[in-house]
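Sample intake sheet
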Amino acid sequence: MGEDVRLRAVVMLAQGMAAAQSPRESWRAAALGACHALSGNFAALSVWERERGRLRVLVNVGERAAGEAEFPEDETYPVHQFPEITEFLHERWAAGGEPDAWVETAAGPVERSGYCHQRVAALRRRGRGCCVVAPVVLHGRAWGELYVARPPGVPVFGPQDADFATVLASVAAAGVAQTERLEEARRLAFTDALTGLANRRAVDIRLDEAIERHRGGGAVVSLVVCDLNGLKKVNDTLGHAVGDRLLERFGSVLSLCGAMLPGALAARLGGDEFCLLAVGPPADEVVRVGDELCSRAAELEFGDGVAVGIASTGDPIGEVRSARRLFRLADAAQYKAKALRAVRPVVAGRDGGLDDPVVRLADAPPPAAGGGERRRIRGGRER
């Protein structure tokens, strides 16, 4: 392969990883790019899980053998079964050696120095002729490996291919680092720093998507809005550090209760306001979880329980065509629970359907500026 061809292959790999919008897309771009660049028919990218002492396959591309999924759920291999990895991790790397790639062929001996060579055995078992393995180094540490194979009957990889694979692994490492930075930025953008729950921005996006599912296919969408009672008193009498601890503990309770609803999103909207968003479970199941949330919140060391309002498209609340309306309904229910000091959730639509005072409050036009009843209902933008 000429230098110009290899240079173009490197550029294509880098561009593919730069265009990736998720870790999976990035892994797949790295493996596909390396497979093409080295004229292979199969490639895989794996990560070294230090805490488990195992090599976990992230993606398999190309001509996969039986049992090889594109994105395996749990395809892992103990690192001690691969002496060449152990040598790299604990000897050459520690001594400052370069992370060179190496080549294995199916024609090589399976038994070497008293151990079974897993690479050679795997090549034969999967009908492959040879492979080149390039360590991936990230932030100065061994991160994983890039693996490219060729079928039997074609030229085996040579020393120049191994050198090129080392270059490709470096490019892949830069792409993985970029993806990790993007994922961390996304995590920070959609996560509440104090509790680790989702934030309002994440709720807005997920709720918009949920309402689209409801309008398109009738999925039940339920929103649980919570207002933690007594936070101001805790802050004023015991200090903000204790108040933060109360918020963190309630966040844990909310997360625990949310786990009872498959796929539910637990979030902190800001201050002492939290919510759960569930898509799919029946309204009654969501109300049961709301009851559990009230019970557990009442047992917290500080604070004074929680006011919980629920709105679900599974209840008689009328047509829900926007995220804004569901939010207003849940917030109006929570407002009523707060006013009544209710120890159980208030559920929109369960006290007379559309004649329910909660529904009327949520659907009423906003008061004129400077007068009228104090309204706490969040609306956000029209969606």
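Comment: The longest helix spans residues 159-189. Confidence is low (pLDDT under 50) at residues 91-95, 371-383.
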